């Protein structure tokens, strides 16, 4: 008898809990999904992205939410694994019922998720780098970070202004280095740049002096470019100094974090790279239109997490803010309406630069979004 | 010519580390017939422990002995907890246990330390020395000199001390060694501790040049294994020559052939040795062990 009573009581309890839980999440909140590489090899991307999304969703909700409704963030950790990302994407669409998606820290995870959101008709803002995500344009796919092709163009533009024409390249064979290497070879001709030496190194290579020795003996060498991220560029930079090159070294936006300067040490002095204005927030002139956005994001992130700001978290900030503005303009949470408004984003000032989207451009950044930085006294400064 | 010298310097520096890893393989292999694939993890533990102890504010000259000691303790634990309980098992089983141990140590290092790359300050500055047009980092001399000192000490140990002779006796014939009163279990444990110390020293010496992180061990173990095979498994002199040769081949291959296949060279060496020269440069004929 008591047994039956207990069972009935439990059943009532579950029923009550279920009844209380379901309506709250269905009607009054706007569900936004995310799948990021919070752990694993790309955790330096996913970790600040996740922290940024959580921080700003909380801030937006405290300020009254969007269109009078609270935001609800559903985050999964895909560990930069494309298979996991695909599974989470399906779960976000079918089980969680999200209206918009931010994330995909890596290009691989993003490409695996694209078909899911294209089929479901849910807007998807990727935080990954490669140009293939938005070229060709897919109706529901957008992205916030600069592309590797733009990094090449920015570097070559700077070289052209300095009269540099003969360039040596040393590229990582990982996904990022390989992709940027290809993009750089593709656009070099537009800037009158000739690649006089072309070397590579593996993701775990610990000594690049043989490759750099070959580059150094290339006739007429005027500069060296190193596409790649992780520890590789730090070792390249150290070896570059060891061998006593007398030409400038250009790194990519892949090393735009303080850990690169720490690992490369003194050798990082004088290295030039294209990166977002976020890294030099305080050093921007006061009349710079981007200054307000980057200083406020930097201050908020560093206060909330106690960690130095990185450009990667900034990409998540840009994606979330563009999404919120699109929802406000649309005045609804209909995925199709959000998509249409996202595409009309114009004059949006984010941490990456000014975004002007169009039906043929789902990135919306131009070369002015990149700043040429130089490392001096162990810190970033605006070059020239 | 300066290019050639630069390739050689680069190859010898990296090769000296492979040589020390190969030496670690050799010592344990001789004492127990086990190829210890956790040898690369000792290199990682040496470098990472030094990084984290110095980061806590301890001067480098105290941090280094502490890191070597830490690696020795882990080497002893590896023997006592993983190898010793399975002592009746075949060599293949024991080798698989060491692979498991290396995965375990790598996972543990992710938690105890972190997943980032770290560097140590160079012992005597970063200003390269020019030798015949090749730029040599002072740290390279530390690596090469350190390797030479270790080899000399080992030679003295094996040829001039009773414990060293006991290790050699165990290597030659375990049953006979036990019959004349040598504690072979102690000798095998000792060989793990000694290998761990050598690995840790290699990891500390090279960290200022190549950087260190929790996962550098696996690749070093494979390259060191290739070096030990090339020199002849079980021969200390072979380990040194093999290590330097693999390092030189990598650097010259990357310099003159193609940098794309740099990492493949060690594996080509393994295949070539297995096909053409199964005993390595200095190896005993394999029938001798049967």
UniProtKB/TrEMBL annotation, chain B:
GO annotation (BP), single: amino acid transport
A Pfam family per the record: BPD_transp_2
One GO CC term on file: plasma membrane
InterPro entries to which the protein is assigned, alphabetical: ABC_transp_permease (IPR001851), BCAA_transport_permease (IPR052157)
Membrane association type: Multi-pass membrane protein
Major subcellular location class: membrane
UniProt keywords, alphabetically: Amino-acid transport, Cell membrane, Membrane, Transmembrane, Transmembrane helix, Transport
GO molecular function, one term: transmembrane transporter activity
Protein location: Cell membrane
Transmembrane segments annotated in the record for this chain: 7-31, 51-78, 90-109, 129-158, 179-205, 211-230, 237-258, 264-283
Family from the record: Belongs to the binding-protein-dependent transport system permease family. LivHM subfamily.
Protein name: Branched-chain amino acid ABC transporter permease
């Amino acid at each position: 008898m008591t047994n039956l009573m207990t069972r009935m009581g439990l059943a009532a309890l579950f029923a009550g809990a279920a009844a209380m839980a379901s309506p709250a999440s269905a009607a009054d909140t706007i569900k936004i999904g995310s799948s990021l590489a919070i752990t694993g090899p790309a955790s330096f991307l996913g970790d600040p992205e996740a922290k940024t999304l959580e921080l700003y969703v909380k801030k937006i909700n405290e300020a009254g939410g969007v269109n009078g409704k609270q935001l609800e963030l559903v985050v999964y950790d895909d560990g930069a694994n494309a298979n996991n990302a695909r599974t989470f994407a399906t779960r976000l669409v079918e089980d969680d019922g999200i209206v918009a998606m931010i994330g995909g820290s890596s290009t691989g995870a993003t490409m695996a998720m694209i078909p899911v959101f294209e089929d479901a008709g849910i807007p998807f803002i990727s935080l990954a780098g490669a140009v293939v995500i938005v070229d060709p344009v897919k109706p529901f796919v957008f992205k916030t970070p600069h592309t590797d092709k733009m990094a090449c163009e920015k570097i070559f533009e700077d070289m052209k202004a300095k009269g540099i024409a003969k360039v040596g390249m040393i590229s990582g064979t990982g996904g990022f280095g390989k992709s940027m290497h290809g993009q750089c070879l593709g656009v070099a001709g537009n800037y009158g740049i000739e690649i006089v030496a072309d070397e590579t190194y593996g993701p775990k290579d610990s000594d690049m002096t043989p490759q750099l020795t070959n580059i150094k003996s290339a006739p007429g060498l005027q500069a060296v470019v190193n596409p790649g991220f992780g520890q590789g560029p730090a070792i390249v930079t150290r070896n570059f100094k060891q061998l006593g090159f007398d030409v400038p070294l250009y790194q990519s936006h892949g090393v735009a974090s303080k850990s690169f300067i720490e690992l490369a040490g003194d050798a990082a002095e004088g290295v030039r790279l294209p990166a977002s204005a976020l890294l030099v927030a305080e050093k921007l002139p006061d009349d710079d239109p981007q200054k307000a956005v980057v200083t406020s994001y930097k201050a908020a992130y560093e206060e909330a997490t106690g960690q130095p700001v990185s450009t990667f978290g900034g990409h998540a900030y840009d994606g979330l803010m563009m999404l919120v503005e699109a929802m406000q303009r649309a005045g609804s949470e209909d995925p199709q309406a959000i998509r249409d408004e996202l595409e009309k984003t114009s004059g949006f000032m984010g941490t990456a630069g000014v975004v002007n989207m169009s039906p043929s451009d789902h990135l919306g950044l131009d070369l002015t979004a990149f700043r040429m930085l130089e490392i001096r006294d162990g810190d970033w400064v605006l070059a020239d | 010519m300066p290019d050639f010298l630069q390739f050689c310097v680069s190859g010898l520096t990296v090769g000296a580390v492979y040589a020390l890893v190969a030496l670690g393989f050799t010592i344990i292999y001789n004492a127990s017939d086990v190829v210890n694939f956790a040898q690369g993890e000792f290199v990682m533990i040496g470098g990472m422990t030094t990084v984290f102890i110095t980061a806590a504010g301890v001067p480098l000259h105290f941090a280094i002995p502490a890191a070597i000691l830490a690696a020795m303790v882990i080497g002893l634990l590896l023997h006592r907890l993983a190898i010793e309980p399975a002592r009746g098992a075949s060599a293949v089983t024991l080798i698989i246990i060491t692979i498991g141990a290396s995965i375990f140590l790598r996972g543990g290092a992710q938690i105890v330390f972190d997943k980032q790359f770290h560097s140590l300050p160079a012992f005597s500055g970063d200003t390269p020395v020019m030798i015949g047009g090749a730029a040599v980092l002072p740290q390279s001399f530390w690596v090469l000199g350190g390797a030479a000192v270790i080899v000399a000490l080992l030679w003295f140990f094996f040829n001039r001390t009773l414990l060293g002779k006991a290790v050699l006796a165990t290597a030659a014939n375990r049953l006979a060694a036990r019959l004349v009163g040598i504690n072979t279990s102690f000798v095998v444990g000792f060989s793990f501790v000694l290998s761990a110390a050598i690995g840790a020293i290699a990891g500390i010496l090279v960290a200022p040049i190549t950087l260190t992180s929790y996962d550098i061990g696996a690749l070093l173990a494979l390259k060191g294994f290739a070096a030990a095979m090339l020199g002849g498994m079980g021969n200390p002199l072979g380990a040194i020559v093999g290590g330097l040769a693999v390092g030189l081949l990598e650097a010259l291959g990357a310099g003159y052939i193609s940098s794309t296949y740099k990492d493949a060279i060690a594996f080509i060496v393994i295949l070539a040795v297995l096909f053409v020269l199964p005993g390595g440069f200095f190896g005993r004929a394999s029938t001798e062990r049967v």
